[in-house]
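Form 7-S
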Amino acid sequence: MAAAKLDAVTAAALDLARAAAMDEAGDFEVGDHLGVIVDDERVVTHLFACPHPGYTGWHWAVTLVRASRAKTPTVNEVVLLPGPEALRAPEWVPWAQRVEPGDLAPGMLMPTPDDDPRLEPGYTGGDEHDDTTTALRAVVHELGLGRERLLSDYGRQLAAERWVEGPGGADAAESRLAPAPCATCGYWVRLRGSLGSLFGACANGYASSDGRVVSVDHGCGAHSDVVSDASEAYLPDPVWDSVTVDSALFD
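Output:
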């Protein structure tokens, strides 16, 4: 299909295009004419600079159209458009994708999508009045599987990567200075399931990681094998004994 030719009448209607841009711009004002673009047969768009300091790189686009056999064009559209180097607001990101760890405050609800790849269906089926189903449910509940959805392999992988790279991993500053890893500490409680091969929870109330998930190669200065070498101090005999009672005084 051949490209449309420049319509001389609409291309020459510069004053009409500028007047339309100025009417729309108001205090934004209209700058120099930047050129004309052929959109279609007897349809062109005049471009004008926008001198407003808050819209650097933007321009006014005024589209003119001329009907067949008409002698004068009419204004079809006036818009302010960004150029390649225009300052623009960042693209809008949905709320669910903007939430970061720690953003969830008490009382807030964060729904989980039905197709969340971090979860997979659990076992909750069967007839509630069937003896076999009742026994099977007891087993899966004991194994921690009697839930609507369970952590998927992908979800476990994400959690493992997050924990390893976090403050409970081996790269933490306290890990590099620790006398021994958490896996050899008496306060370390191993997690159940597949994540237990790499992670556990700290149960030392004096440790900075108390109550948090830590990796097997994490560590801190509160390791259970760190014992004091100082012996118990014994006080010398007092110069004047005012405590001991001489039983001979009561004979």
